[in-house]
Amino acid sequence: MKTLAVVLCIICVALRTHAQYENDYAEADRIALNIPASQTNSTADIAAYINKNFDTDNKKVRAIYTWVISHIRYSNDSIHRVILNEDRDQLVTFALRRRKGVCENFAAIFDDICKKCGLRSFAVEGYTKQNSSVDRTSHAWNIVYIDKKWSAYDPTWDAGQSSTFYQPVRTNYFMIAPPVFIQTHMPFDPMFQLLDYPLTYKEFNNGSIRAKNVAKYFNYNDSINKYEKDEPLERYIGATERIQNNGAANNMISTKLSQLRLEIELIYQVKDSVLYNDAIADYNFATNEFNNFIAYRNNQFKPEKTDAQIQLLFDEVRKSIAAARKKLKEVNQSKAKLTLDTGDVEYAINKLDNHMKEQEVFFKNYKAPANNKQ
């Protein structure tokens, strides 16, 4: 009961703050609604206009939000077409050209303009709950870091209320505090709940909240800071672990996990392919150098070269063979489920290595009499 009272208090405070923001943002809304059409052909153009006309992050994010929900319509013909993690550039350019899209398009456009205005932001994937019932399709929304704190935004849900280009702009899902937003929006990655004590999927679905002494503390700020610096592979692995550790999954979460695992597998396979091809290149270089020596020998070592020059050739062959073997070893230790067969290449490298050693011994024996005379 105490927990419920706290949540209701947070909601009331958020609503009062929200009403105040509506008044404070009237000028930002007016300017955003009147951005010249010639300045809205790309997110870069929109961001440039906003950066020129606003000097605070608060007003910038408001102008971005107002423009998106007022100029992009929800596409009913694509209502069930939600593809997780689709190419972000395509999501943006496609929707800007058509001036309509699904939740992914709204989130991608809003996120892209925010980033180009210098704001820390993310497009977040997850699912929602309305009237205490979990929706069957996935959803996408945004989080933005303003005034040293993260807040949540759902331009898709507000777009239906702002279908005209006139004020006042109605926004119910603009700059919402995380404890309020989690009542209706569950991100796949618990990190994006922006809560010190994240809810499990089951708790969200059932509308229950654990006491803090039961829930495990999570430093989402540090995790997001690390996430921003991570390469894609580390991001995917981290998200997979957090999702798996957050309790029982529904079909949407299972789909997201499958997609993350596929992304991880593809990165491993691409890395293996690059290593394999580079190993082949090393082998080909070594073979070419070795063949140069054979041609030199067949020409009775004419024109004459110094011992140091010949030794350098052998060293180059040996170095390339070592490099190829090192890369193939990495391929053989790959974490990918579908691995490359390196057997034939390793056999060819070993054969070349043996031939090179034979020729090196031959050359030393060939030069020995001349060296003894000296």
The assigned CATH architecture of the largest domain is Roll
For this structure, the CATH topology of the largest domain is: C8orf32 fold
| Beta-strand content | 5-15%
Quaternary status of these chains? single chain
Low-pLDDT stretches: 1-8, 79-84
State the end-to-end CA separation. 100 Å
User: Which CATH first-tier class of the largest domain would you pick?
Assistant: Alpha Beta
Structural class by SSE content: alpha+beta
Q: What count of structural domains?
A: 3
Helices and strands in order:
Blueprint: H1 2-24, H2 26-33, H3 43-53, H4 57-71, E1 73-74, H5 88-98, E2 100-101, H6 103-116, E3 120-130, E4 133-134, E5 139-146, E6 149-153, H7 155-159, H8 178-181, E7 185-187, H9 201-206, H10 220-229, H11 232-244, H12 251-298, H13 307-332, H14 343-373
Parallel strand pairs: 1-2
Antiparallel strand pairs: 3-4, 3-5, 3-7, 5-6
Coiled coil: 314-341
Domain Transglutaminase-like: 95-157
Signal peptide: 1-19
